[in-house]
Amino acid sequence: MSDNTIYVIDVTNRDGVQTSQLGLSKLEKTMVNIYLDRMGVFQSEAGFPTTNHETSYLQGNIELVDIGAIKRARISGWLRAIKADIELAREMVPDLEHTNISISTSPQMISGKWKGKKSFDDVVSMMTEALTRAVEIGFKTVGVNAEDASRTGIEDLVRFTGAAKEAGATRVRYCDTVAYDDPFTIYERMKTLAEEVRIDLEVHCHNDLGMAVATSIAGAKGAIDGGVDAYVNTTVNGIGERAGNADLISCLLAILKSAGMEGRYKLDPSIDLRQSWRIAKYAARAFNVPISVNQVGVGRNAFAHESGIHADGALKEARNYELYDFEDLGRGEPEIIETGRMITTGAYGGIKGFRNVYDRLEIEFRSDEEAREILDLVRLANVLTQKPLTEDELRFIADYPEQARKILTLTPYQEPAIKEKRTRVTRKVGFPWDTPAN
Fold it and tell me: What angle is formed at CA 157 by the lines to CA 146 and CA 249, rounded to 5 degrees?
């Protein structure tokens, strides 16, 4: 087995929430971070530090790390590889320590986005300028994203990756942005990058051709075989732009159970696969996207057998038709559904009903004043999520009221100096140095 390790960087709270017509409240994003942490995921790409409505949430989650409520997972941001973006992020979320910066590298995107105004040399220069600034102003780790890496010539990609390493990048992210790669091409390209540049690599794959998990695993294998650590980018339930991203649970199972990976490649030992069922269920509810009946590991039929030969074989010995056990994923525990009287609490709940709900959770309050403070937060959370709060959400608010209040705070107000700078940096979809068309 190689000494190098495969880690997971989950991007549900960045790429997942970008999905058209879907989204999460800040409380739901926080709960995803907490579940990822319980699962042992290395890092959560938690959001956009230069987006006004993300700042309180990001700062609140960083505080959860500081007080030990999030124990291992790093909270990171995503930024454009623009010096002004880097500086703005430092002002808007001053305690953010980890980030990825992104820029397009392929001829298609350089031509299609900048329309002849920029060259590949310009891309490398912009990236190194932004990266150098990020290191200067105190980001502890900076990953560099090569957007559309799969449609970038390998010689250019080696040059880009080498420049990132020289300027202080922690890792480089190979983005298969439109799912152009297959498992064979991405293996060779990731292996070449690893051998030529000797820097840890991330693999970020989309599912437009239905191969996101396969290409992610093959890419990670190429990085490891090339002698560096690999960081697989995932989303919970594969939620992501267009056809989605590489599914978290599918990737973990593939690393642990597939013929070419099992026992040969080392997965981050902090990973706890038993958290799979809980996080998949939560994300499905939060995004309002049901788990597919045949979803890997967590779908309703993942361990279901009906045809005669299959049922007989599974009853005799589960391993006949099941590669892994449902208990491995945290499934099998009974779930209680209330069919009688229910007392709930929410946006218009009162103190008596609220107390009843928390009594059933065996949570006590030191005073009536404390109970009413938590009730106010629960009401606000219900307004923002527009869903009944889950038991874990109710527990979180009671356990961490200060952080919950910060995470739930949304305001259009910004300090005038920051607002002016943000307006200048983000005044148009393109880059700040582009001249608006006449």
Answer: 50
Those residues with Cβ within 8 angstroms of residue 92's Cβ, 6 or more apart along the chain or in another chain = 49, 50, 52, 55, 418, 422
Q: Give the whole-angstrom CA distance, residue 2 versus residue 252.
A: 17
Cα(18)–Cα(144) distance, rounded to whole angstroms? 20
Q: Count the helices and strands in the chain (H runs, E runs).
A: 16, 9
CB contact at 8 A, 78 and 44: no
Q: Helix 368-385 and helix 26-39: axis angle, to 10°?
A: 100
What are the DSSP calls for 51-96, one per residue? SGGGHHHHHHHHHHHHTTSS-SPEEEEEEES-HHHHHHHHHHSTT-
> pLDDT digits over 224-268, tens only?
999 999 999 999 999 999 999 999 999 999 999 999 999 999 999
Spacing of C-alpha 295 from chain mean position: 19
Domain boundaries, the chain: 5-287, 337-426
276, 59 in Cβ contact below 8 A?
no
| 141 burial level (CB within 10 Å; 0-12, 13-18, 19+) | middle
In whole angstroms, give the CA distance from residue 234 to residue 14: 11
Cα 385 to Cα 392: distance, rounded to the nearest angstrom: 14
At the topology level, CATH places domain 5-287 in TIM Barrel (3.20.20)
Residues 384-432 have pLDDT tens digits of: 999 999 999 999 999 999 999 999 998 776 677 777 777 777 664 444 4
Structure-block tokens of residue 193:
């990058």
The DSSP annotation for 125-147 comes to HHHHHHHHHHHHTT-SEEEEEEE
pLDDT digits (tens, 9 = 90+) for 39-59: 999 999 999 999 999 999 999
Q: Pull the structure tokens for residue 433.
A: 């140095």
CA 153 from centre of chain: 28
